[in-house]
Structures are given as structure tokens and as C-alpha cells.
Write a structure and sequence with these properties.
about 300 residues, Rossmann fold, four-stranded parallel beta sheet, about 15% strand
């Protein structure tokens, strides 16, 4: 019997309706692309597979080689799954404040973690990866932030999946930006299919925020693959509103991570201004990766749990 490997079943994640928590205009739907269903547990499985495969095709990455990159956690976990399947060593530069679940997963999967300053976020992890690449010429620095194989993964898979799952009815696509690969690749594909599809880019509303893996582009190192021309709309999202959305949906059986909370809150904001449309939001991972972080799950003083819309 010929069975697929974990790497071969990346993608084809479900598109589900947002639980009926919010009153939306008649004729407007919000759909969530649940990327936590990927084998490594996040949307980053798509980019990691694409990046590794391209390095293999180019002859940069050979059997038994060492992969080096920087990550806030999810791409690193995806690399670790692929490295385990392919027989590579993985060295990952990771901010020290990455969630305990992510760090434990990486260690369990055999990753060698190089901790970097939590105050410098992924920018600091990238700087350390560049230094290590210079010091170890035989390591293959994959550089997810500047690697075109990142956005191409979404152009080739995420975009077509959303188009097919909505039967071409998608009117708005919403995603947070970290490397920006998801927004760039998916946005380019969808705009080629339908020129009036709106691409909504979601960033934190300030440099100091709690949205792990998401970049405030005005103050962060801008990824080389980031294309500011892809987005037709930009939304600044606060950490507080994102966390509240995470808590709200957890009460209704859907566990999201903070970046997913930001994307869903932005999708709700967009949807409330429409008279008709299908708004698709990317949910990058599951809230199960953040359960050790009480600041996400502890309600604000006076916060009332959200209820199903009547």
C-alpha cells in the first residue's frame, strides 16, 4: 500500500464559517481558513516545504545537510517536521519569549535552538542567523523572510484552494503579515482570478505588541518578499482586541492563536461595512500553542463573554 508522507499532505485545509457570534449584514459571510490543520500545525508548513524543496532542486541542500533559519516558532516547527522526514539537521534562531508549547515542540522534534533577545523579536533572530551563516559556510541559510519560494507556496496552493472552496465568490481576503508570504502569494493569485477582490493586510497597531510572529512594518525589518502593492486595504489591530477575539471564539469551540484573533477581528470589521460579500480570513495556527500564556486567556476587568448572535 502506497501511503503519503506528512510532507505530501500539506495544504487542502478546511474553510469553515465563523460561528454565529456576531451580527453581520444580510448577504455577508465570513469564512475561516484553518491552517492549524496542516501536519506541522500552522500555515507555515506550506512555505517551509516550498523553501526546502527549492533548496534541494538548486543543489544547495544535500542529504545530511544542516538547515539554518530564524523563526518566531511556527516556520521552525514546519522545518523540523520536514527535516525529520528528509534527514536534515535543523538549527533555529528563536526569540527567547516564544511560547513554551512551541519551544517544547521544537526540542521534541530534535531542533537545535539558538535563543535570541525577546526585545528584538524576529529581527534579532534574523541578525543572529546571518552571523551563524557567515561562521558556518556549510550550513544552508534558507532565509524565509527574503525567499521567493515562500510567497510562491501560497500562490500555488493557498490561493487556488480559497478560490475553489468559495467557488469563485470570495470578495475579500484578510491576513496578518509576518514574513508576508501568505498575503503576497494568495493576494496575487486571487487578484489574477478576479480584479476586484480586496486584499486586507493586518498589522499590529504599535511596535510594542503581543501578536507573536506578526510584524509592525513601519518599525521592523521589512522582509524582502513584502510587496506593499498587493494590499488594497490595511488595518491596524490592537493586541487587546485580538486577544479578546481569541477568548470569545474559545467559548464557542474554536481555538485560535493571537494572529488568528487579529485576522478574524479585522474580517468582522470589514464585513460590518459591507452589504454583500464573502470575507475569507487566514487562521495561521491553533490556540493550543499558547495555552501556557495566561495574559492571552485572562479576561480584562469587566469583560463580558461574547454570546451567540440571535
Amino acid at each position: 500500500m502506497d501511503l503519503p508522507s506528512f510532507v505530501e499532505i500539506i495544504g487542502n485545509t478546511p474553510l469553515v464559517g465563523l460561528p454565529a457570534v456576531f451580527e453581520l449584514p444580510d448577504g455577508v459571510q465570513i469564512a475561516l481558513k484553518l491552517e492549524g490543520r496542516n501536519p506541522s500545525g500552522s500555515v507555515k508548513a506550506r512555505a517551509a516545504r516550498s523553501i526546502v524543496q527549492e533548496a534541494e532542486r538548486a543543489g544547495r541542500l544535500k542529504p545530511g545537510g544542516t538547515i539554518l533559519d530564524a523563526s518566531s516558532g511556527n516556520t521552525g516547527i514546519a522545518y523540523a517536521v520536514i527535516a525529520g522526514q528528509r534527514g536534515y539537521r535543523l538549527v533555529l534562531c528563536l526569540p527567547k519569549n516564544a511560547s513554551a508549547q512551541r519551544q517544547q515542540l521544537l526540542k521534541t522534534l530534535g531542533t537545535e535552538i539558538v535563543h535570541t533577545s525577546p526585545l528584538e523579536g524576529t529581527d534579532g533572530a534574523q541578525a543572529e542567523a546571518v552571523t551563524l551563516a557567515d561562521d558556518h559556510g556549510d550550513w544552508v541559510y534558507l532565509n524565509q523572510y527574503d525567499n521567493d519560494a515562500n510567497w510562491r507556496a501560497h500562490y500555488q496552493t493557498t490561493g487556488p484552494e480559497i478560490w475553489n472552496q468559495t467557488q469563485g465568490t470570495v470578495t475579500h481576503f484578510v491576513a496578518t503579515v509576518g514574513t508576508s508570504g501568505t498575503l503576497t502569494g494568495t493576494g496575487r493569485y486571487l487578484r489574477e482570478q478576479r480584479k476586484d477582490v480586496q486584499i486586507v493586510e493586518v498589522q499590529p497597531d504599535s511596535p510594542l505588541h503581543g501578536l507573536e510572529g506578526v510584524k509592525h512594518m513601519q518599525t521592523a525589518r521589512v522582509p524582502g518578499i513584502y510587496d506593499p502593492g498587493v494590499a488594497t486595504d490595511r488595518r491596524a489591530m490592537s493586541t487587546e482586541r485580538s486577544f479578546r477575539m481569541v477568548r470569545c471564539l474559545a467559548h464557542h469551540g474554536l481555538l485560535l492563536g493571537p494572529s488568528g484573533g487579529a485576522a478574524v477581528q479585522a474580517a468582522v470589521d470589514v464585513a460590518r461595512d459591507l452589504t454583500h460579500g464573502v470575507v475569507v480570513a487566514i487562521v495561521p495556527d491553533s490556540g493550543s500553542r499558547y495555552l501556557s500564556e495566561p495574559h492571552i486567556w485572562t479576561p480584562a476587568e469587566g469583560e463580558v463573554p461574547c454570546r451567540l448572535a440571535s
